[in-house]
Write a structure and sequence with these properties.
The protein is an alpha/beta fold. The chain is built from ten helices and 13 strands. The strands form three sheets. A five-stranded mixed β-sheet has the order 2-1-3-10-4, sandwiched between helices. A five-stranded mixed β-sheet has the order 7-6-8-5-9, sandwiched between helices. Strand 11 and strand 12 form a beta hairpin. Bound molecules: ligand PBG.
C-alpha cells in the first residue's frame, strides 16, 4: 500500500507535505508518495479577500480527496475554514512548529529600529492591525505572493521590511533570514499559525488510524480553542483576528490559556482579552472569550473592515 499525500505546488506546501509524509512512514512504516494539486490561491496574485478569502487554498485539495485522487490532504491550519467539510475528517494535527510572526528587515534591523515612515509589507489585515497598533509610525503596505517573492522585495529595496510566519521560514530552512521574531503576546499569531492539518475521507478508517499516530494533544487543544474563538466571532482567515493558546501545567492540572486580538487595519482602537480554563474544554474557552470580545464591540470592528 502506498498512501497518496496531496499537496499544493508551492515550495512551502511541498516541503511541509513531504515532512508529514516522512513522519508518517517513520511512525507507521507505510509508503507514501506526493501528489501535487493546483489551487486558485496559487494561480492568482489578487488579494486573498477578493478571490474568496477563507478556503481558496483548501478546496481543490479536498476535492481531490473526495474524488479518490489522493488519500491524505495536508494544509496549513491557519488556511483551513472553521466549518467542518462534508465527508472530510481532520484526522491529525502534528506538533506545532512555531506560532510567531517573523520580521525580515533591511540591514538586520528590528521593527523598533526602523525609522518613522519605513515601508513594511504584509498582506494580512491581522498583521497590519497589530503593526499599526504598536504605534511605531511605520507605513504598512499590502503584499502577496510566496515567501521568496515577499523576501525579494526587501532585498531589492522596494520595502524596508516584510512580516511573515516564522513557521514557514523554518520549514523552508530560511529562519536565519529573520531579523526579529515577534513576541506572540505582543503580536498575536493567526489562529492555527505554525500548525498543520492532515485530512482524510471520513469513511476511510484505515487512513484515519494511521494519521491518528501523528496527532499531538497539546497542539490540538490549543488550535481547537483558537479556531473556536474564530468561529464564534464568525470570522475567517483573512479577518483582523489574532489568537494564541498554550497548554500550561498548573500543579498537575493542565490549563489552557487563550489570548485574542480583534483590530482594524486602518488603526481604530483594538480589543485584546484572554481567558483560561481546563484543557478538556477548548471549544468552551474559545466561545466564552469570543462572547466577551463581542460584548466589547468586536463584531462592529470586524463589520467595519469586512471586504
Ligand atoms: N497565509 C499563507 C500562509 N499559510 C501558512 C503559512 C505558513 C505558516 C504556517 O504554517 O502558519 C503562510 C505564509 C505566511 O503567513 O507567511
Amino acid at each position: 500500500m502506498t498512501l497518496r499525500v496531496g499537496t499544493r505546488a508551492s515550495a512551502l506546501a511541498t516541503t511541509q507535505s513531504s515532512q508529514v509524509a516522512a513522519l508518517l512512514t517513520e511512525l507507521t512504516g507505510v509508503e507514501t508518495e506526493l501528489v501535487t494539486v493546483s489551487t486558485e490561491g496559487d494561480r492568482s496574485t489578487r488579494p486573498l479577500a477578493e478571490i474568496g478569502g477563507t478556503g481558496v487554498f483548501v478546496s481543490a485539495l479536498r476535492d481531490a480527496l473526495l474524488a479518490g485522487e489522493v488519500d491524505v490532504a495536508v494544509h496549513s491550519l491557519k488556511d483551513l475554514p472553521t466549518a467542518p467539510a462534508d465527508g472530510i475528517l481532520l484526522a491529525a494535527m502534528p506538533p506545532r512548529v512555531d506560532p510567531r510572526d517573523a520580521v525580515i528587515a533591511r540591514d538586520g534591523l528590528t521593527l523598533g529600529e526602523l525609522p518613522v515612515g519605513s515601508r513594511v509589507g504584509t498582506g494580512s489585515p491581522r498583521r497590519a492591525a497589530q503593526l499599526n497598533a504598536l504605534g511605531l509610525g511605520i507605513e504598512v503596505v499590502g503584499l502577496r505572493g510566496n515567501v521568496d517573492t515577499r523576501i525579494a522585495k526587501v532585498r531589492d529595496g522596494e520595502l524596508d521590511a516584510v512580516v511573515l510566519a516564522a513557521a514557514g521560514l523554518r520549514r523552508l530552512g530560511r529562519i536565519e533570514e529573520a531579523t526579529e521574531l515577534l513576541d506572540p503576546l505582543q503580536v498575536l499569531p493567526a489562529p492555527g499559525q505554525g500548525a498543520l492539518a492532515c485530512e482524510c475521507r471520513s469513511d476511510d478508517r484505515e487512513v484515519a488510524g494511521l494519521l491518528a499516530r501523528l496527532d499531538d494533544d497539546a497542539t490540538r487543544a490549543a488550535v481547537t480553542a483558537e479556531r473556536s474563538l474564530l468561529a464564534s466571532l464568525e470570522a475567517g482567515c483573512s479577518a483582523p483576528v489574532g489568537a494564541w493558546a498554550e497548554v500550561v501545567d498548573d500543579d498537575g492540572s493542565l490549563q489552557l490559556w487563550l489570548r485574542a486580538f480583534v483590530g482594524d487595519p486602518s488603526g481604530a482602537p483594538s480589543i485584546r482579552l484572554s481567558a483560561t480554563g481546563s484543557v478538556q474544554d477548548p471549544i468552551g474557552i474559545g466561545e466564552r472569550l469570543a462572547a466577551e470580545m463581542i460584548a466589547e464591540g468586536a463584531d462592529s470592528l470586524m463589520r467595519a473592515t469586512a471586504p
